[in-house]
Specification:
Elements: E1 2-9, E2 18-25, E3 29-35, H1 41-48, E4 56-61, H2 71-74, E5 77-80, H3 91-98, H4 107-116, H5 130-144, E6 148-152, H6 160-171, E7 179-183, E8 196-201, E9 204-210, H7 211-217, E10 218-223, E11 232-238, E12 241-247, H8 258-267, H9 269-281
Helix pairs in contact: 4-5
Amino acid sequence: MININDLAFSYKKKNPLFSRLNLQLAEGRIHGLLGKNGAGKTTLLKLVSGLLFPDSGNITTLGFNPVHRKPDMLKDIYFLFEEFTLPDFSIQKFKEIYAVFYPNFSDTQFAEYLSEFEIHDNEKLNSLSYGQKKKVLIAFGLATNTKLLIMDEPTNGLDIPSKSQFRKIMAGAVDENKCVIISTHQVRDLDNLIDSITILDQQDVIISQSIEKITEKLCFKVLSQNDSENKILYSENGLRGHWAVVENDKNEESKLDIEMLFHATFADKKRMKELFNNINKA
C-alpha cells in the first residue's frame, strides 16, 4: 500500500528531518504513527499524500508516485488534518460539494456516523465546537471509503465519551483493502484499536511492527522491586505496582501497553532497534 525507500527531506535552512528513511505500511491494518513533537509525523504523512515532495528517495502510495498527484490516487486518499478551516455551510451542503470527489462515498454511512456522534446534518459547521467539527470530518472521511485514510491527531478536541465513540467506529471501519494511519501523541486513545505501531525518532524509524510481533519480543508485566531474572527495558512505579517492559525471553503472553512501549523505546533506543531489526532479517 505504502512503500518508502531511502527518503530524505528537509525544510529550507534547517537540518534534515529525514535521511534514508525506509518504511512499509500494508493494507488491512490500522497503523499507529507515534513520535515525540518534532519527529516528523505530520511531514511524513504529507509526503505520503503528495502535499510535500522528497529531496531524494522514493515513495509509492497506492501504486503511484505521490509527487504527481494523479486523480486516480487522490480519489482514494482522505487526509484529516489536525488543524483545519471549514466553510460556513450546513453539514448537508458540505457533503453535496465535497462528496463528488470520492466515487465510493456513502450517504448512508455518513448519516450513520453522524448519528453515532449525535450530530444533525442540518447544523451549520461554524456553529459547532472544535470537537464537533472534528467529528463531522471523521464521519465524512470514513464515508469516503478511500483505500488510504490518514488521520493526524484525530482525538484532539474530543471529550472522553467521544473518544470512546471514535474507537468504536474505527474498529469496524477497516477491511482487507484499506490502510488507515493514525498519527497521535495521545497514545492511550489508540488502546485496543491499532494493529501495528511505527515509532519515529531523529530521522529514523525505531520500530515498525504489528502488535503480535511486538508482544512476541516484549512482555508488559508487574514485577517485584528486587527482580533480577528479567531483562528490563523500562519500569515505573504506579498504583498497580512495579510495572515494567521486559524482553520476552520466556515467551509469556501479555497485553500491549502503548504508553509503556513508547517510554521503553526512548529509554533504550539501541536495544529496541536490535530486537526488531532481527525480526526484519528473519
